[in-house]
Amino acid sequence: MLRLPAFTYEPARSIAQAVGLLAQYGPDALVVSGGTDLYANMKQRLFTPKVLVGLRSISEMRFIAYDDATGLDIGALTTLRTIAEDPVVNARYHSLARAASLISTPQLRNMGTIGGNVCLDTRCNFYNQQEDWRQALGYCLKKDGDVCRVAVSSTKCLAVNSSDLVPVLQSFDATLHLAGPTGERAVKIVEFYRDDGRYARVNGPTEVVTRITIPPPQAQTRSAYRKLRLRGSFDFPLLGVAAVVRLDDDGVCRDARLILNAVAAQPVEVTEAVRYLVGTRLEADALAAAAECAYKCGKPLDNTSASVLYRKRMLRVFARRTLEDLRHGI
Amino acid sequence: MPDAPRHVSTATNADIEAAGTTASVNAKEPEGFSVVGKALPRIDSYAKVTGAAMYADDIALPRMLFGRLLRSTHAHARITRIDCRAVLGLPGVVAVATGEELPMRYGILPSSPDEMVFAVDKVRYVGEPIAAVVAVDELTAEQALKLIEVDYEPLAPVMTIEDALREDLPKLHVESRKPNNVHKEVHLAFGDMEAGFAAADRIFEDEFFYEGNNHAAMEQHAAVAEYGGDGKFTIWTSSQTPHYLHRIAAAVLGIPASNLRVIAPMIGGGFGGKTEPFQHELAAAHFARKTGRPVKFALTREEVFYAHRGRHPMKMKIRTGVKNDGTITASHVQTWLDGGAYGSYGVATTYYSGALTPVTYKIPAYAFDGCRVYTNKPPCGPKRGHGTTQPRFGFECQLDKIADALGLDAAEYRTRIAVDPYSRTVNYLRITSCGLRECIDAAVQRTDYRKKHGKLPRGRGIGLAASTYLCGAGLPIYWNPMPHSGAMVKVDRGGGVTVYCGVSECGQGSQHMLAVIVAETLGVDVMDVRVCAGDTDLTPVDLGSYSSRVTFMAGNAAHDAAEAVRRDMAEAAAQMLGIAPEQCGFANRRVFDVAKPDHYTTFLEVAQAAEARFGTLVGVGSYTPPENLHGDFKGSGVGPSPAYSFSACIAEVEVDLETGEVHVEKITLAHDCGRALNPDSVEGQIEGSAYMGLGEALMEESSFRGGLHKMPNLLDYKTPTILDTPEIEAIIIETDDKEGPFGAKEAGEGPLNPVIPAIANALADAIGARVYSTPITAEKVLKALEGADSGALRLRHGSPARAEAIQ
What is the pLDDT of residues B633-662, one digit of tens each? Predict the structure, then answer.
């Protein structure tokens, strides 16, 4: 990697100050918290902001609170490690803690934050490359070019959402709270992402994700997350599968959600799967049928490690195994 | 493979008689070493653990400038115009250079002088340096590169071995006399091949492919150069071979070698990736002269992938004839090497891909055809196990297939056909000490291999493989009659001992090995010894840290040098103790009467008495390999070594039959290192080999897409993490080689070789099907699982086994 390009670091002490700085510098500025995604991307010259607005010192954004009535409220600066280790998260939103524990490495989980993770830049191995490399390629739709290198006929960028937390948060119906120059607003996570890797999030450059809320889990809710990757650490998901079910007292599934990630610019909800799960006791054939829906739904492209065929094939296996995890509890 | 007459050696086997009777280079110490064999902390460990150790990129000199290289954005193109005029207008830029300023073609091997510091007229891979800028800081230099205008006329890139063999594609090197992009062909045969295959009951033929990979050393290459007004240059650089850089840099810069000093500071891992001159080193020196200021070039990780010199992708065809009891009657190895754009060590790699196959098992007739091609990719070169790792993968996989087909126990079979100590191979290589059988036996015993192999539940497997490696190449890379290694030992009047030797410390522990050998010889503590290494001004020449030569060759030179000092000191001590010099023992900082150890004087007192009597206490030593190591035929220079190490590896794996993921649970790796001068260091090398082998076996690949390296970074180029690394059990086998220093051989490269086929064989045991190419990805495992039955069927019917296709 190259060294970081020159930039000015403007530390913000409060949300209001951060929003003010962003408004002041406009498109020249980006926000940074843990920097685990942004700094690496800057070293590849994917971003060359003149100003970085540092959020690290905003204490009002660093908390985890839980209330039986309102649910979980997580400040955007909460580190991935804190989430992975938090007892309430582990007990009530198990897959969220699990997904956080599977992100990258211990060092990066100490620095990376949930806010940064939900704002992770979409990834593609035609894009996440050094400047020279992209110049040799002729650039791409996402940065400096006008052709998508994954599929030349595509009019939108096919980079993928590689967050481990996003599909889980979506499975819990999380809401993102944004602060911007015109005040605060709340956006359901399902509405936060777009199906275009270049413009993958709805928040504008002057809007900061300040906190994330999740409704309280209903009784007998179980959640699971599985991640396909080539190594035991470091790697972004080649496929992420998040699942949540709610069982009744007889162990019959009353509600289910199955969400895939790292196969498109936004999470892919396998809505078809629900009807194969609801009303069952998660028997093997029900899980297989739901997994088959995931297989049909997920359409990986040749822009991450491992081949398309392999990732496609693993959709079925990982979806089934994630659902099997739910049968066993948690 | 084009038909060309094979060179059939006419050398007689008369020199085989010499085997085993070679005069010992070193007199062996009697019983009881005081330093050798002890697991002592390395002399460089404190500096490395605390971060105090100096690497090339740590060096900062006053007024130093920073350089960046402009690299080609085309895989294959003519350069029609380079315009650098705008560059000097950028504030902070001090100088710019292009290829005409350094027009000499060079190459690490005198046979392949095909590289230039900056490409002129033509570029041959994406990432090839074309020009460079030096500026007051790196960011300015980087910005300046954008101002250089280059016009290209693209040519069709040649990206595969198959394409390189075609005659209708552009040649990378138009001056080559070959009609296609073949760089080097080798055809050798030993023994009676026809009779050998005629005598076979069964003939096995398999094809394999070994993927290219990078060394991925932690330290990215860096160089700092300084030019004094007196015409003298100094280059500090992460080089495993400061001596070779010294020779070539002097020639490229057009200066007498005496005006150049090359210093190799601590090096953060080499593995063969820092063994030849690199553009950034030569550019640093050039700019130092041009600007009169020190200049640093530090490569980024991406640039390391472009500098490359990594393992050659290799296609292999192996045909072996055996009797029904498994005895090998003949073997024919064919290799095709994807060399990348330049020669590098490729001629040697090509020979190595055939030379060492007969060193492990008795093969009475052996033929080898090798062919290295040029492709529009970063040049391949030597990586740990240089050229022998790929065919070892193929050969050991085939041996397991043979054992399977003939109903033989794969371990017993290997020990039965293993070469004997003090023997000579059919290709005339001299084997001295050999612990191959002991390695296999030890690994088998530790793992209960016999109880497990073929008997574990589906999805679990255990696999064995064995191998050999050199203890230094028997011949230097440029012909000369001088020693391969020189050392000087100085004892000062304060009792301090300094060893001067040209070796390069790339993390393998070369400095510590020299310290151990000298400390043992002089009877001092290993921490009393200071090693001054890798400095062409201060240290006698050592050819470098490659081909696992340092402990054996530099070790012998240092031992000789220490012995010379010891002789003077023994004379002085004898006088002090009133005994004969040969009665003097040296240990624990004392010189004593061996018959009466309580009768002693201190090392310090002896040092002072000896200096008073003889003047400055210095001893010199050098090492030249014996002459009877090889046959007399073209190409006989690659493969011979004064000794060979031997290794056996057993891998135990669990395979996820649904995902194809291979989880290696344990690697047991036995290695015959002659004698472990420091068991901790040997175990470290064995563990590192297991780790590196694991990566090569399962994940590492230098893959390309449309002329571009697909993943020139350490996030996408996969090397194992600690979570992927299994329990590793290192077993040291000692054979006390007659010619090694205190009996030592090598441990740095050999243990890598059996790891890859052991994992492949364990996989085959687990799933009943085989993957014929590396890396053994989950996807390939799934494919093998689906085709498993047909392969097994053919074996049962007894027809020659053959891979369906190169995967």
Answer: 988 989 999 999 999 999 999 999 999 999
Whether the upstream peptide bond of residue B775 has omega within 30° of 0, thus cis, is yes
Contact B302 A1 (CB under 8 A): yes
Q: Mean pLDDT by 10-residue block, N- to C-terminus, for chain A (330 residues)? A: 94 98 95 97 97 97 97 98 98 97 98 98 97 95 96 96 98 98 96 97 93 96 97 97 96 97 97 98 97 97 95 98 90
Nearest CA in chain B to A130: B302
| Fold of the domain spanning A59-119+160-214 | 3.30.465
Q: Pick from B302, B708, B724: which is nearest to A232 by CB? A: B724
Q: Which residue of B has its CA nearest to A104?
A: B715
**Of chain B residues 675-714, which have a CB less than 8 A from chain A?**
699, 706-713
What is the pTM assigned to this prediction? Answer: 0.95
Phi, psi angle pair for B738, to nearest 5° = -65, -25
Residue carrying the six token digits 């850089």: B245
Sheet of B182-190: strand order equals B7-8, B182-190, B366-373, B328-338, B314-322, B202-210
Q: Is B665 on the interface with A (CB under 8 A)?
A: no
Q: CA-nearest residue of chain A to B716?
A: A305
Cα–Cα distance list, B390 to B342, B346, B349, B386, B484 (Å): 20, 14, 11, 9, 27
| Alpha helices (H) in B85-203, listed in sequence order | 138-145, 161-165, 193-198
- Chain A interface includes B778 (CB < 8 A): yes
Topology (CATH) of A1-58: 3.30.43
- Looking at the domain A221-327, which fold is it? Enolase-like; domain 1 (3.30.390)
Domain-wise residue ranges, chain A: 1-58, 59-119+160-214, 221-327
Residue that the structure tokens 């094979």 belong to? B6
A110–B contact, CB cutoff 8 A: no
The verdict on a CB contact (< 8 Å) between A130 and B302 is yes
Determine the residue among A103, A228, A230 to mutate to test chain B binding: the one whose Cβ has the most chain B Cβ atoms within 10 Å.
A230
**What is the C-alpha radius of gyration for chain A, rounded to an integer number of angstroms?**
20
Q: What is the pLDDT of residues A140-181, one digit of tens each?
A: 999 999 999 999 999 999 999 999 999 999 999 999 999 999
H or E element: which one contains A134? helix A131-137
Q: Would you state the pLDDT for residue A123? A: 98
DSSP designation for B246: H
Cα–Cα–Cα angle for B71, B73, B79, nearest 5°?
A: 85
Q: Check B301 against A234: CB less than 8 A apart.
A: no
- Read off the pLDDT of residues A71-90 as tens digits, 9 standing for 90 and up: 999 999 999 999 999 999 99
CA B174 to chain centre: 31
pLDDT band at B31 (very low <50, low <70, confident <90, very high): low
pLDDT at B788: 56
Which residues, at least 6 apart from A70, have a Cβ–Cβ distance to it below 8 Å?
Answer: A213, A215, A216
- Could you tell me the CA-to-CA distances from B255 to A66, A186, B102, B250, B280 in Å, in that order? 74, 71, 12, 5, 18
Asked whether the ipTM of the predicted complex exceeds the cut of 0.95, the reply is yes
Q: Which residues contact B347 (CB under 8 A, 6 or more apart)?
A: B109, B111, B112, B183, B184, B372
- Asked if B716's CB is within 8 angstroms of A125's CB, the reply is yes
How far is B706 from chain A, CA to nearest CA, in Å? 9
Specify the pLDDT at position A328. Answer: 81
Amino acid A307 reads S
**If residue A21 lies in a helix (H) or strand (E), which one and from where to where?**
helix A15-25
- Residue B798: its pLDDT value, please? 30
> Which of A200, A233, A182 lies closest to A127, judged by CA?
A200
Count of beta carbons in the 10 Å neighbourhood of residue A217: 19
Domains of chain B: 56-155+218-269+274-307 (3.90.1170.50), 314-475+631-797 (3.30.365.10), 483-623 (3.30.365.10)
